[in-house]
Specification:
The complex is a heterodimer. Chain A is built from twelve helices and no strands. By secondary structure, chain A is mainly alpha-helical. The chains are: A mainly alpha, B alpha/beta.
Protein backbone atom coordinates (compact mmCIF):
# COMPACT_ATOMS: atom_id res chain seq x y z
CA UNK A 1 0.00 0.00 0.00
CA UNK A 2 2.86 2.32 0.91
CA UNK A 3 4.61 1.51 -2.37
CA UNK A 4 1.41 2.21 -4.28
CA UNK A 5 1.14 5.60 -2.63
CA UNK A 6 4.74 6.48 -3.57
CA UNK A 7 3.87 5.84 -7.21
CA UNK A 8 0.66 7.85 -6.88
CA UNK A 9 2.55 10.78 -5.36
CA UNK A 10 5.10 10.79 -8.18
CA UNK A 11 2.42 10.64 -10.86
CA UNK A 12 0.46 13.47 -9.28
CA UNK A 13 3.66 15.50 -9.07
CA UNK A 14 4.28 14.77 -12.74
CA UNK A 15 0.74 15.88 -13.65
CA UNK A 16 1.22 19.21 -11.92
CA UNK A 17 4.83 19.72 -13.07
CA UNK A 18 3.90 19.13 -16.69
CA UNK A 19 0.92 21.54 -16.49
CA UNK A 20 -1.26 18.63 -17.59
CA UNK A 21 -3.24 18.89 -14.37
CA UNK A 22 -3.87 22.63 -14.74
CA UNK A 23 -4.86 22.29 -18.37
CA UNK A 24 -7.27 19.51 -17.54
CA UNK A 25 -8.79 21.38 -14.61
CA UNK A 26 -9.25 24.58 -16.59
CA UNK A 27 -10.69 22.85 -19.64
CA UNK A 28 -12.97 20.66 -17.59
CA UNK A 29 -14.30 23.53 -15.52
CA UNK A 30 -14.56 25.74 -18.59
CA UNK A 31 -16.49 23.26 -20.69
CA UNK A 32 -18.76 21.98 -18.00
CA UNK A 33 -19.36 25.49 -16.65
CA UNK A 34 -20.19 26.84 -20.08
CA UNK A 35 -22.73 24.16 -20.88
CA UNK A 36 -24.15 23.99 -17.38
CA UNK A 37 -24.82 27.71 -17.03
CA UNK A 38 -24.67 29.44 -20.36
CA UNK A 39 -25.43 27.40 -23.41
CA UNK A 40 -27.61 24.59 -24.74
CA UNK A 41 -30.00 22.92 -22.35
CA UNK A 42 -28.45 24.71 -19.40
CA UNK A 43 -29.98 25.14 -15.97
CA UNK A 44 -31.78 28.37 -16.85
CA UNK A 45 -33.20 26.82 -20.00
CA UNK A 46 -34.72 23.81 -18.27
CA UNK A 47 -35.75 26.00 -15.32
CA UNK A 48 -35.15 23.31 -12.69
CA UNK A 49 -32.89 23.30 -9.66
CA UNK A 50 -30.98 20.23 -10.77
CA UNK A 51 -27.40 19.39 -11.68
CA UNK A 52 -28.55 17.16 -14.53
CA UNK A 53 -27.09 19.45 -17.23
CA UNK A 54 -23.71 19.32 -15.47
CA UNK A 55 -23.77 15.53 -15.17
CA UNK A 56 -24.71 15.16 -18.80
CA UNK A 57 -21.92 17.40 -20.04
CA UNK A 58 -19.36 15.85 -17.68
CA UNK A 59 -20.33 12.51 -19.16
CA UNK A 60 -18.77 13.65 -22.43
CA UNK A 61 -15.96 15.93 -21.28
CA UNK A 62 -14.56 13.22 -19.01
CA UNK A 63 -14.89 10.71 -21.82
CA UNK A 64 -12.47 12.77 -23.92
CA UNK A 65 -10.21 14.05 -21.13
CA UNK A 66 -9.51 10.85 -19.25
CA UNK A 67 -7.64 9.08 -22.08
CA UNK A 68 -5.48 12.21 -22.36
CA UNK A 69 -4.56 11.77 -18.71
CA UNK A 70 -3.87 8.09 -18.93
CA UNK A 71 -2.24 7.79 -22.35
CA UNK A 72 1.30 8.40 -21.18
CA UNK A 73 1.11 6.61 -17.83
CA UNK A 74 2.51 3.30 -18.99
CA UNK A 75 3.49 3.88 -22.63
CA UNK A 76 5.99 6.54 -21.60
CA UNK A 77 7.57 4.26 -19.02
CA UNK A 78 7.86 1.47 -21.54
CA UNK A 79 9.31 3.78 -24.17
CA UNK A 80 11.87 5.36 -21.84
CA UNK A 81 12.74 2.09 -20.17
CA UNK A 82 11.86 3.42 -16.72
CA UNK A 83 9.41 0.55 -16.28
CA UNK A 84 12.41 -1.75 -16.02
CA UNK A 85 13.86 0.54 -13.41
CA UNK A 86 10.64 0.50 -11.39
CA UNK A 87 10.08 -3.21 -11.59
CA UNK A 88 13.60 -4.03 -10.44
CA UNK A 89 12.84 -2.16 -7.23
CA UNK A 90 10.93 -3.93 -4.47
CA UNK A 91 7.59 -3.15 -6.04
CA UNK A 92 5.19 -5.31 -8.00
CA UNK A 93 3.34 -4.76 -11.27
CA UNK A 94 0.08 -4.45 -9.42
CA UNK A 95 1.36 -1.70 -7.13
CA UNK A 96 2.67 0.27 -10.10
CA UNK A 97 -0.64 -0.06 -11.93
CA UNK A 98 -2.87 0.78 -8.99
CA UNK A 99 -0.59 3.66 -8.04
CA UNK A 100 -1.01 5.20 -11.47
CA UNK A 101 -4.73 4.46 -11.46
CA UNK A 102 -5.14 6.24 -8.15
CA UNK A 103 -3.18 9.27 -9.31
CA UNK A 104 -5.54 9.81 -12.25
CA UNK A 105 -8.58 9.17 -10.12
CA UNK A 106 -7.44 11.67 -7.51
CA UNK A 107 -6.94 14.29 -10.17
CA UNK A 108 -10.45 13.68 -11.53
CA UNK A 109 -11.91 13.80 -8.02
CA UNK A 110 -10.13 17.11 -7.53
CA UNK A 111 -11.70 18.40 -10.74
CA UNK A 112 -15.11 17.26 -9.51
CA UNK A 113 -14.58 18.87 -6.11
CA UNK A 114 -13.93 22.16 -7.84
CA UNK A 115 -17.49 22.00 -9.19
CA UNK A 116 -18.94 22.06 -5.64
CA UNK A 117 -19.72 25.80 -6.11
CA UNK A 118 -22.20 24.67 -8.80
CA UNK A 119 -24.05 22.67 -6.15
CA UNK A 120 -24.05 25.61 -3.76
CA UNK A 121 -25.29 27.99 -6.44
CA UNK A 122 -28.06 25.70 -7.64
CA UNK A 123 -29.21 24.95 -4.11
CA UNK A 124 -29.50 28.70 -3.51
CA UNK A 125 -31.79 29.14 -6.51
CA UNK A 126 -34.17 26.33 -5.79
CA UNK A 127 -34.89 23.16 -3.89
CA UNK A 128 -32.15 20.72 -4.83
CA UNK A 129 -32.39 16.97 -4.25
CA UNK A 130 -29.35 16.15 -2.12
CA UNK A 131 -29.54 12.41 -2.75
CA UNK A 132 -29.60 12.93 -6.49
CA UNK A 133 -26.54 15.18 -6.32
CA UNK A 134 -24.64 12.69 -4.21
CA UNK A 135 -25.43 9.71 -6.40
CA UNK A 136 -24.69 11.80 -9.51
CA UNK A 137 -21.22 12.67 -8.24
CA UNK A 138 -20.68 9.06 -7.23
CA UNK A 139 -21.64 8.05 -10.77
CA UNK A 140 -19.05 10.46 -12.19
CA UNK A 141 -16.31 9.08 -9.95
CA UNK A 142 -17.13 5.48 -10.83
CA UNK A 143 -17.47 6.36 -14.49
CA UNK A 144 -14.03 8.00 -14.36
CA UNK A 145 -12.51 4.99 -12.60
CA UNK A 146 -13.79 2.77 -15.37
CA UNK A 147 -12.33 4.89 -18.19
CA UNK A 148 -9.04 5.41 -16.35
CA UNK A 149 -8.71 1.68 -16.16
CA UNK A 150 -9.50 1.34 -19.89
CA UNK A 151 -6.97 4.10 -20.60
CA UNK A 152 -4.29 2.38 -18.53
CA UNK A 153 -4.87 -0.78 -20.49
CA UNK A 154 -4.48 0.93 -23.87
CA UNK A 155 -1.45 2.77 -22.54
CA UNK A 156 0.19 -0.54 -21.75
CA UNK A 157 -0.50 -1.87 -25.25
CA UNK A 158 1.26 0.78 -27.28
CA UNK A 159 4.44 2.74 -26.65
CA UNK A 160 2.93 5.57 -28.65
CA UNK A 161 0.82 7.97 -26.62
CA UNK A 162 -1.42 9.03 -29.50
CA UNK A 163 -2.16 5.42 -30.37
CA UNK A 164 -2.98 4.81 -26.71
CA UNK A 165 -5.31 7.80 -26.67
CA UNK A 166 -7.17 6.82 -29.82
CA UNK A 167 -7.40 3.21 -28.77
CA UNK A 168 -8.92 4.25 -25.46
CA UNK A 169 -11.53 6.34 -27.31
CA UNK A 170 -12.20 3.45 -29.66
CA UNK A 171 -12.85 1.01 -26.82
CA UNK A 172 -14.69 3.69 -24.87
CA UNK A 173 -17.11 4.56 -27.67
CA UNK A 174 -18.52 1.04 -27.51
CA UNK A 175 -19.46 1.45 -23.87
CA UNK A 176 -20.42 5.07 -24.32
CA UNK A 177 -22.70 4.83 -27.39
CA UNK A 178 -22.50 1.72 -29.53
CA UNK A 179 -23.73 -0.89 -27.04
CA UNK A 180 -26.68 1.33 -26.27
CA UNK A 181 -27.55 1.75 -29.96
CA UNK A 182 -27.29 -1.98 -30.56
CA UNK A 183 -29.36 -2.72 -27.48
CA UNK A 184 -32.22 -0.65 -28.86
CA UNK A 185 -32.35 -2.84 -31.94
CA UNK A 186 -31.72 -6.16 -30.26
CA UNK A 187 -34.21 -8.14 -28.25
CA UNK A 188 -34.17 -10.90 -25.69
CA UNK A 189 -31.01 -11.92 -23.85
CA UNK A 190 -28.66 -10.20 -26.30
CA UNK A 191 -30.56 -6.98 -25.85
CA UNK A 192 -30.32 -7.28 -22.09
CA UNK A 193 -26.60 -7.97 -22.18
CA UNK A 194 -25.93 -5.06 -24.52
CA UNK A 195 -28.08 -2.83 -22.38
CA UNK A 196 -26.18 -3.88 -19.27
CA UNK A 197 -22.84 -3.24 -21.01
CA UNK A 198 -23.81 0.28 -21.99
CA UNK A 199 -22.51 2.98 -19.66
CA UNK A 200 -25.49 5.24 -20.18
CA UNK A 201 -27.88 2.70 -18.64
CA UNK A 202 -26.02 2.81 -15.35
CA UNK A 203 -25.05 6.45 -15.52
CA UNK A 204 -28.58 7.65 -16.10
CA UNK A 205 -30.08 5.62 -13.31
CA UNK A 206 -27.45 6.89 -10.90
CA UNK A 207 -27.81 10.53 -11.89
CA UNK A 208 -31.53 10.13 -11.29
CA UNK A 209 -30.63 9.33 -7.70
CA UNK A 210 -30.85 5.55 -7.69
CA UNK A 211 -27.85 3.72 -6.31
CA UNK A 212 -28.27 0.12 -7.34
CA UNK A 213 -25.73 -2.62 -6.65
CA UNK A 214 -25.91 -3.64 -10.32
CA UNK A 215 -24.58 -0.25 -11.34
CA UNK A 216 -21.82 -0.33 -8.76
CA UNK A 217 -20.83 -3.82 -9.84
CA UNK A 218 -20.78 -2.69 -13.45
CA UNK A 219 -18.40 0.24 -12.93
CA UNK A 220 -16.16 -1.46 -10.38
CA UNK A 221 -16.15 -4.67 -12.40
CA UNK A 222 -15.00 -3.05 -15.61
CA UNK A 223 -12.41 -1.00 -13.72
CA UNK A 224 -11.07 -4.16 -12.17
CA UNK A 225 -11.01 -6.05 -15.47
CA UNK A 226 -9.10 -3.18 -17.07
CA UNK A 227 -6.47 -3.25 -14.34
CA UNK A 228 -6.13 -7.02 -14.55
CA UNK A 229 -5.67 -6.83 -18.33
CA UNK A 230 -3.04 -4.11 -17.86
CA UNK A 231 -1.25 -6.35 -15.41
CA UNK A 232 -1.33 -9.25 -17.83
CA UNK A 233 0.20 -7.08 -20.58
CA UNK A 234 3.01 -6.02 -18.24
CA UNK A 235 3.49 -9.62 -17.21
CA UNK A 236 3.68 -10.71 -20.82
CA UNK A 237 6.49 -8.23 -21.43
CA UNK A 238 8.46 -9.77 -18.58
CA UNK A 239 8.00 -13.27 -19.92
CA UNK A 240 8.65 -12.30 -23.54
CA UNK B 1 25.82 -12.02 -0.80
CA UNK B 2 26.76 -14.60 -3.35
CA UNK B 3 25.02 -14.79 -6.67
CA UNK B 4 24.43 -18.25 -8.02
CA UNK B 5 23.04 -18.66 -11.50
CA UNK B 6 22.05 -22.18 -12.44
CA UNK B 7 21.14 -23.43 -15.90
CA UNK B 8 19.60 -20.14 -16.90
CA UNK B 9 17.86 -20.29 -20.26
CA UNK B 10 15.93 -17.53 -21.95
CA UNK B 11 14.48 -17.52 -25.45
CA UNK B 12 13.01 -14.70 -27.46
CA UNK B 13 10.81 -16.55 -29.91
CA UNK B 14 13.10 -18.93 -31.77
CA UNK B 15 16.21 -17.11 -30.74
CA UNK B 16 18.04 -18.41 -27.70
CA UNK B 17 19.44 -15.41 -25.87
CA UNK B 18 20.88 -17.25 -22.90
CA UNK B 19 21.60 -20.93 -23.16
CA UNK B 20 21.91 -23.00 -20.00
CA UNK B 21 24.16 -20.50 -18.29
CA UNK B 22 25.62 -21.29 -14.86
CA UNK B 23 28.06 -19.29 -12.82
CA UNK B 24 28.73 -18.07 -9.32
CA UNK B 25 29.91 -14.74 -7.98
CA UNK B 26 31.25 -14.49 -4.46
CA UNK B 27 30.94 -11.62 -2.01
CA UNK B 28 33.75 -9.14 -2.46
CA UNK B 29 34.24 -10.12 -6.06
CA UNK B 30 33.88 -7.86 -9.08
CA UNK B 31 32.84 -9.88 -12.06
CA UNK B 32 33.33 -8.46 -15.53
CA UNK B 33 30.80 -9.63 -18.02
CA UNK B 34 32.14 -9.54 -21.55
CA UNK B 35 30.73 -10.58 -24.85
CA UNK B 36 29.91 -9.30 -28.31
CA UNK B 37 26.62 -7.52 -28.94
CA UNK B 38 23.69 -9.84 -28.54
CA UNK B 39 25.65 -12.40 -26.56
CA UNK B 40 23.10 -12.41 -23.76
CA UNK B 41 24.81 -10.15 -21.21
CA UNK B 42 21.88 -7.81 -20.72
CA UNK B 43 19.36 -10.64 -20.71
CA UNK B 44 21.28 -12.41 -17.96
CA UNK B 45 21.41 -9.21 -15.92
CA UNK B 46 17.70 -8.63 -16.40
CA UNK B 47 17.04 -12.14 -15.16
CA UNK B 48 19.20 -11.68 -12.06
CA UNK B 49 17.40 -8.45 -11.21
CA UNK B 50 14.05 -10.25 -11.41
CA UNK B 51 12.82 -8.13 -14.30
CA UNK B 52 12.68 -10.85 -16.93
CA UNK B 53 11.37 -14.26 -16.06
CA UNK B 54 13.65 -16.97 -17.43
CA UNK B 55 12.29 -19.95 -19.36
CA UNK B 56 14.19 -22.29 -17.11
CA UNK B 57 16.91 -22.22 -14.53
CA UNK B 58 17.21 -20.44 -11.22
CA UNK B 59 19.03 -17.54 -9.68
CA UNK B 60 19.93 -17.34 -6.01
CA UNK B 61 21.10 -14.16 -4.39
CA UNK B 62 22.32 -14.91 -0.90
CA UNK B 63 19.71 -17.21 0.56
CA UNK B 64 16.93 -15.85 -1.57
CA UNK B 65 15.71 -17.53 -4.71
CA UNK B 66 14.23 -15.77 -7.68
CA UNK B 67 11.14 -17.98 -7.72
CA UNK B 68 10.27 -17.70 -4.06
CA UNK B 69 11.39 -14.30 -2.85
CA UNK B 70 11.96 -11.93 -5.78
CA UNK B 71 11.04 -8.94 -3.60
CA UNK B 72 13.86 -9.74 -1.19
CA UNK B 73 16.30 -10.07 -4.05
CA UNK B 74 15.20 -6.75 -5.47
CA UNK B 75 15.63 -5.14 -2.06
CA UNK B 76 19.28 -6.21 -2.01
CA UNK B 77 20.20 -5.35 -5.57
CA UNK B 78 21.25 -2.03 -7.01
CA UNK B 79 20.80 -2.07 -10.75
CA UNK B 80 21.90 0.29 -13.47
CA UNK B 81 20.18 -0.78 -16.70
CA UNK B 82 21.92 -0.51 -20.03
CA UNK B 83 20.13 2.53 -21.39
CA UNK B 84 20.18 4.27 -18.00
CA UNK B 85 16.47 5.10 -17.95
CA UNK B 86 15.56 8.09 -15.79
CA UNK B 87 12.50 10.25 -15.23
CA UNK B 88 13.77 13.07 -17.40
CA UNK B 89 11.55 15.83 -16.10
CA UNK B 90 12.28 15.30 -12.42
CA UNK B 91 14.95 17.23 -10.54
CA UNK B 92 17.87 15.01 -9.52
CA UNK B 93 17.20 15.21 -5.81
CA UNK B 94 13.46 14.52 -6.16
CA UNK B 95 14.21 11.55 -8.34
CA UNK B 96 16.71 10.11 -5.88
CA UNK B 97 14.27 10.68 -3.04
CA UNK B 98 11.59 8.84 -5.01
CA UNK B 99 13.93 5.88 -5.54
CA UNK B 100 14.93 5.96 -1.87
CA UNK B 101 11.26 5.78 -0.84
CA UNK B 102 10.57 2.93 -3.22
CA UNK B 103 13.59 1.08 -1.87
CA UNK B 104 11.91 1.31 1.53
CA UNK B 105 14.69 3.24 3.21
CA UNK B 106 13.34 4.38 6.59
CA UNK B 107 12.15 7.97 6.45
CA UNK B 108 14.67 9.28 8.98
CA UNK B 109 17.61 7.82 7.06
CA UNK B 110 16.64 9.09 3.63
CA UNK B 111 18.32 12.49 3.95
CA UNK B 112 21.61 10.95 5.07
CA UNK B 113 21.59 8.43 2.27
CA UNK B 114 20.76 11.12 -0.28
CA UNK B 115 23.64 13.28 0.89
CA UNK B 116 25.91 10.29 0.82
CA UNK B 117 25.25 9.20 -2.77
CA UNK B 118 25.16 12.76 -4.04
CA UNK B 119 28.65 13.24 -2.63
CA UNK B 120 30.09 9.96 -3.75
CA UNK B 121 28.71 10.38 -7.27
CA UNK B 122 29.76 14.01 -7.52
CA UNK B 123 26.29 15.44 -8.04
CA UNK B 124 26.57 18.22 -5.48
CA UNK B 125 26.23 21.09 -7.94
CA UNK B 126 23.63 19.43 -10.14
CA UNK B 127 21.23 18.16 -7.52
CA UNK B 128 18.52 20.76 -8.13
CA UNK B 129 18.69 20.58 -11.92
CA UNK B 130 16.16 18.65 -13.92
CA UNK B 131 17.60 15.40 -15.21
CA UNK B 132 17.02 16.29 -18.86
CA UNK B 133 19.19 19.38 -18.42
CA UNK B 134 22.19 17.25 -17.47
CA UNK B 135 24.94 16.06 -19.78
CA UNK B 136 25.22 12.39 -20.52
CA UNK B 137 27.99 11.85 -18.02
CA UNK B 138 25.98 13.43 -15.23
CA UNK B 139 22.94 11.40 -16.16
CA UNK B 140 25.11 8.33 -15.87
CA UNK B 141 26.10 9.47 -12.38
CA UNK B 142 22.44 9.87 -11.46
CA UNK B 143 21.85 6.34 -12.72
CA UNK B 144 24.67 5.11 -10.58
CA UNK B 145 23.44 7.09 -7.59
CA UNK B 146 19.99 5.52 -7.80
CA UNK B 147 21.58 2.08 -7.88
CA UNK B 148 23.65 2.84 -4.79
CA UNK B 149 21.14 4.71 -2.70
CA UNK B 150 20.03 1.81 -0.52
CA UNK B 151 23.65 0.58 -0.14
CA UNK B 152 22.78 -2.74 -1.73
CA UNK B 153 24.68 -5.95 -1.11
CA UNK B 154 24.73 -6.71 -4.80
CA UNK B 155 25.43 -4.24 -7.56
CA UNK B 156 24.60 -4.97 -11.17
CA UNK B 157 25.86 -2.44 -13.66
CA UNK B 158 25.18 -2.70 -17.36
CA UNK B 159 27.86 -0.64 -19.07
CA UNK B 160 28.38 1.83 -16.24
CA UNK B 161 30.93 4.14 -17.84
CA UNK B 162 29.28 4.79 -21.19
CA UNK B 163 29.35 8.47 -22.03
CA UNK B 164 31.75 9.50 -19.31
CA UNK B 165 34.93 11.46 -19.89
CA UNK B 166 38.27 9.88 -18.91
CA UNK B 167 38.38 11.62 -15.53
CA UNK B 168 34.90 10.52 -14.69
CA UNK B 169 35.64 6.99 -15.87
CA UNK B 170 38.56 6.89 -13.48
CA UNK B 171 36.42 8.15 -10.61
CA UNK B 172 33.62 5.71 -11.31
CA UNK B 173 36.03 2.80 -11.60
CA UNK B 174 37.53 3.68 -8.27
CA UNK B 175 34.07 3.96 -6.79
CA UNK B 176 33.15 0.52 -8.13
CA UNK B 177 36.39 -0.96 -6.83
CA UNK B 178 35.76 0.52 -3.41
CA UNK B 179 32.24 -0.88 -3.33
CA UNK B 180 33.44 -4.19 -4.69
CA UNK B 181 35.58 -4.84 -1.66
CA UNK B 182 32.61 -5.69 0.53
CA UNK B 183 29.81 -6.19 -1.95
CA UNK B 184 29.18 -8.39 -4.92
CA UNK B 185 29.44 -6.59 -8.24
CA UNK B 186 28.65 -7.69 -11.75
CA UNK B 187 29.48 -5.23 -14.47
CA UNK B 188 29.19 -5.60 -18.18
CA UNK B 189 31.20 -3.66 -20.64
CA UNK B 190 32.51 -3.80 -24.14
CA UNK B 191 35.58 -1.83 -23.17
CA UNK B 192 38.12 -4.54 -22.44
CA UNK B 193 40.60 -2.25 -20.74
CA UNK B 194 37.91 -1.27 -18.29
CA UNK B 195 37.10 -4.81 -17.35
CA UNK B 196 40.78 -5.56 -16.98
CA UNK B 197 41.26 -2.54 -14.74
CA UNK B 198 38.29 -3.05 -12.44
CA UNK B 199 37.39 -6.71 -12.33
CA UNK B 200 38.78 -9.56 -10.29
CA UNK B 201 37.26 -12.10 -12.58
CA UNK B 202 36.10 -12.09 -16.16
CA UNK B 203 33.31 -14.04 -17.74
CA UNK B 204 33.18 -14.03 -21.50
CA UNK B 205 29.95 -15.21 -23.05
CA UNK B 206 29.09 -15.76 -26.65
CA UNK B 207 25.76 -16.83 -28.12
CA UNK B 208 24.34 -17.29 -24.64
CA UNK B 209 27.10 -19.59 -23.40
CA UNK B 210 30.16 -19.11 -21.26
CA UNK B 211 33.30 -19.38 -23.34
CA UNK B 212 35.81 -18.27 -20.75
CA UNK B 213 35.86 -17.75 -17.00
CA UNK B 214 38.71 -16.63 -14.79
CA UNK B 215 41.09 -13.84 -13.90
CA UNK B 216 42.86 -12.03 -16.74
CA UNK B 217 45.99 -14.14 -16.25
CA UNK B 218 44.05 -17.35 -16.23
CA UNK B 219 42.21 -16.32 -19.34
CA UNK B 220 45.45 -15.63 -21.12
CA UNK B 221 46.73 -19.10 -20.42
CA UNK B 222 43.42 -20.75 -21.04
CA UNK B 223 42.78 -18.98 -24.29
CA UNK B 224 46.13 -19.34 -25.98
CA UNK B 225 47.55 -22.34 -24.15
CA UNK B 226 50.88 -20.89 -25.20
CA UNK B 227 53.83 -19.16 -23.70
CA UNK B 228 55.53 -16.52 -25.73
CA UNK B 229 58.95 -15.08 -24.92
CA UNK B 230 60.88 -12.27 -26.44
CA UNK B 231 64.58 -13.18 -26.54
CA UNK B 232 67.52 -10.91 -27.25
CA UNK B 233 71.08 -12.16 -27.24
CA UNK B 234 74.50 -10.63 -27.67
CA UNK B 235 77.32 -12.41 -29.51
CA UNK B 236 76.64 -15.33 -31.78
CA UNK B 237 75.43 -15.26 -35.32
CA UNK B 238 71.77 -14.68 -36.15
CA UNK B 239 71.24 -17.89 -38.05
CA UNK B 240 73.05 -19.99 -35.49
CA UNK B 241 70.96 -18.56 -32.68
CA UNK B 242 67.83 -19.05 -34.72
CA UNK B 243 68.66 -22.70 -35.33
CA UNK B 244 69.61 -23.25 -31.72
CA UNK B 245 66.36 -21.78 -30.48
CA UNK B 246 64.40 -23.78 -32.98
CA UNK B 247 65.98 -26.99 -31.81
CA UNK B 248 64.71 -26.47 -28.27
CA UNK B 249 62.21 -29.11 -27.33
CA UNK B 250 58.82 -27.47 -26.93
CA UNK B 251 59.55 -24.43 -29.05
CA UNK B 252 56.90 -24.59 -31.73
CA UNK B 253 57.69 -21.39 -33.49
CA UNK B 254 60.59 -18.98 -33.61
CA UNK B 255 60.37 -15.60 -35.26
CA UNK B 256 63.17 -13.23 -36.01
CA UNK B 257 61.94 -9.85 -34.91
CA UNK B 258 65.07 -7.86 -35.54
CA UNK B 259 68.07 -9.50 -37.19
CA UNK B 260 70.44 -6.60 -36.36
CA UNK B 261 69.64 -6.60 -32.64
CA UNK B 262 69.28 -10.39 -32.67
CA UNK B 263 65.79 -10.24 -31.27
CA UNK B 264 63.56 -13.31 -31.47
CA UNK B 265 60.15 -14.40 -30.41
CA UNK B 266 59.78 -17.95 -29.22
CA UNK B 267 56.39 -19.58 -28.85
CA UNK B 268 55.62 -22.87 -27.18
CA UNK B 269 52.93 -24.76 -25.37
CA UNK B 270 52.48 -23.57 -21.79
CA UNK B 271 53.98 -25.61 -19.00
CA UNK B 272 57.00 -26.71 -21.07
CA UNK B 273 59.46 -24.59 -19.10
CA UNK B 274 60.47 -22.82 -22.24
CA UNK B 275 62.29 -20.02 -20.45
CA UNK B 276 64.60 -22.41 -18.70
CA UNK B 277 65.46 -24.17 -21.93
CA UNK B 278 66.19 -20.89 -23.70
CA UNK B 279 68.50 -19.86 -20.88
CA UNK B 280 70.35 -23.19 -21.03
CA UNK B 281 70.82 -22.98 -24.77
CA UNK B 282 72.34 -19.55 -24.45
CA UNK B 283 74.67 -20.60 -21.63
CA UNK B 284 75.91 -23.68 -23.43
CA UNK B 285 76.68 -21.59 -26.53
CA UNK B 286 78.23 -18.76 -24.49
CA UNK B 287 75.77 -16.22 -25.75
CA UNK B 288 74.85 -13.45 -23.41
CA UNK B 289 71.14 -13.23 -22.80
CA UNK B 290 70.16 -9.56 -22.91
CA UNK B 291 66.43 -9.97 -22.71
CA UNK B 292 64.01 -12.74 -21.89
CA UNK B 293 60.53 -11.31 -21.53
CA UNK B 294 57.23 -13.16 -21.37
CA UNK B 295 54.88 -11.62 -23.92
CA UNK B 296 51.32 -11.31 -22.71
CA UNK B 297 48.47 -12.07 -25.01
CA UNK B 298 46.24 -9.06 -25.15
CA UNK B 299 42.74 -9.40 -23.79
CA UNK B 300 41.49 -8.17 -27.15
CA UNK B 301 43.08 -11.15 -28.86
CA UNK B 302 41.62 -13.58 -26.38
CA UNK B 303 38.23 -11.99 -26.77
CA UNK B 304 38.37 -12.19 -30.55
CA UNK B 305 39.63 -15.73 -30.50
CA UNK B 306 36.81 -16.86 -28.24
CA UNK B 307 33.92 -14.99 -29.73
CA UNK B 308 34.43 -15.32 -33.45
CA UNK B 309 33.99 -18.36 -35.58
Amino acid sequence: MKQTWIITKRELQAYFDSLMAYILLILFLGFSGFFTWLYGSDIFYIKQATLMPFFNIAYWTLFFFIPALTMRLISEENRMGTMELLLTKPIGNWQVITGKFLASLILIILALLLTIPYVITVSSIGNIDGGEVFSGYLALVLFSAMYISVGLFTSSISNNQIVSYLLALFIGIFFQVIFNMLAENASGVVGHILDYLSVSTHFESMTRGVIDSRDLIYFLGISFIGLVLTDSILMKKRYA
Amino acid sequence: MDIVVENLTKRYGDQVAVNNLSFKVKTGEILGFLGPNGAGKTTTMKAITAYLYPDSGTVHVGNYSLDKNPEEIKRNIGYLPESNPLYQDMPVIDYLRFVAEIQEIPRNEIDDRLLNVINSCGLEKEKHKKINELSKGYKQRVGLAQALIHSPEVLILDEPTVGLDPNQIKEIRELIKRIGKEKTVILSSHILAEVEATCDRILIINKGKIVADGSTEELRKQASGKEIYRVMVEDGEVNAVYEALKSIEGADMVDILDAGKKMFEVQGASGTRLAKAIFKVCVSNHWILMQLTPVETKLEDIFMELTTG
